Task: inverse folding
C-alpha cells in the first residue's frame, strides 16, 4: 500500500544521513522502525518508567533531604 506522511525537515535530514551511513534506504529504516514499534505493542514489551515517590510538604521547597534524611519519609525494605 502506498501512503503519504509529512516528515519534518530536520528529522528527514537525519534519516537520510542514517540511511546513507548504513547503506540502506529510508524506506527500509521506516518499515523496520514501524515493525519494531508494532511488535512492542503486540508483545506488551512497552517500557514504562517506575513511579517516583511523592513527598508531601506543608511548605513546598523547604524540605532539605540528605542521603540519610530520605529514609525518614520513604519506607525502604
Result:
Amino acid at each position: 500500500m502506498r501512503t503519504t506522511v509529512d516528515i519534518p525537515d530536520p528529522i528527514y535530514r537525519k534519516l537520510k544521513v542514517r540511511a546513507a551511513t548504513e547503506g540502506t534506504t529510508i524506506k527500509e529504516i521506516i518499515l523496520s522502525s514501524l515493525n519494531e514499534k508494532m511488535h512492542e505493542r503486540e508483545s506488551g514489551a512497552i517500557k514504562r518508567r517506575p513511579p517516583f515517590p511523592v513527598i508531601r510538604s506543608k511548605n513546598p521547597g523547604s524540605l532539605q533531604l540528605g542521603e540519610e534524611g530520605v529514609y525518614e519519609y520513604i519506607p525502604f525494605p
User: Anything to note?
Assistant: The chain is about 40% helix and 0% strand.
